[in-house]
């Protein structure tokens, strides 16, 4: 039972980790994109539609990444090139993603595809204990590798230092010759790619089928995770798995036959935890806002 719980926890945490990691990079560049939920839904429907039509999981995952990037570029053009309000534009992107995914996925409702499976041989992936390590699919391993890669990129590379400089003081970065808008475009595109991949994980691995609003608000939890982690990839990994554990409470309670607590209460536990975390951080001595990039959400125009 413990192994089963851990496997469920890892699966539930992976899309959160991917989406929040992409948003962390975007916010490190000074861009606040509240459209994570919309980008995840675009990736979920695109990945499922392509995988179902072609029979190829690889093409489905690629389509999800491209759909997430395309949705992110809509936001980037409006917020970065046209200097529209980033909060309003992000909310509009979420609304667009909900509507577009419902329209595109109308013909795929109730259809199923073969679940994204483990990449190691059955001797390892189906072992009673070792399957915790070797029984995961490629997206799980990729998400963990991305955490390490992003952490190294932000802390140890010149490009990461430039990205952080753009997020902390865009005017100074521009004054010494760095293309602020281009760097932010790249960061937003990366965030869109991971959000799209995280969305596809719902429709290709967790479910695996298509249904309207399949992500069920996980994009908002991903946004809260970035604040919870204080914009640090390592802490983000711990936070994603912590929230993943909270999200598995409903399934584990049902499996254990808990009847004294309504399932609706358990289903809303992740969202209550999100509110609680943000409230505690805002009331704490060192708030999440003090750790945020100084130019987060502020428009930039080259003068």
Largest sheet: none
Mean pLDDT across all amino acids: 90
Q: Architecture, according to CATH?
A: Orthogonal Bundle
Number of strands: 0
Low-confidence stretches at least 5 residues in length (pLDDT < 50)? Answer: none
Number of domains: 1
Fraction in beta strands: under 5%
Following the backbone from N to C, one meets helices and strands in this order, namely HHHHHHHHHHHHHHHH
| Gyration radius, in Å | 19 Å
Under CATH at level 1, the class stands as Mainly Alpha
Q: How would you describe the overall organization of this protein?
A:
With 303 residues, the protein is an all-alpha fold. The chain has 16 helices and no strands. The chain has a single domain (2-291), classed as ABC transporter involved in vitamin B12 uptake, BtuC, CATH 1.10.3470. Helices cover 72% and strands 0% of the residues. Helix 3 packs antiparallel against helix 4. It is globular. The model has no long low-confidence stretch (mean pLDDT 90).
Concise overview:
This protein has a single domain (2-291), classed as ABC transporter involved in vitamin B12 uptake, BtuC. It is 72% helix and 0% strand.
Write the layout of secondary structure elements.
Layout: H1 2-28, H2 36-54, H3 57-81, H4 86-104, H5 122-125, H6 131-134, H7 138-156, H8 158-168, H9 170-175, H10 180-206, H11 218-228, H12 233-247, H13 249-255, H14 263-267, H15 269-283, H16 288-291
Helix pairs in contact: 1-7, 1-10, 1-11, 1-12, 2-3, 2-4, 2-10, 2-11, 3-4, 3-10, 7-8, 7-12, 11-12, 11-15, 12-15
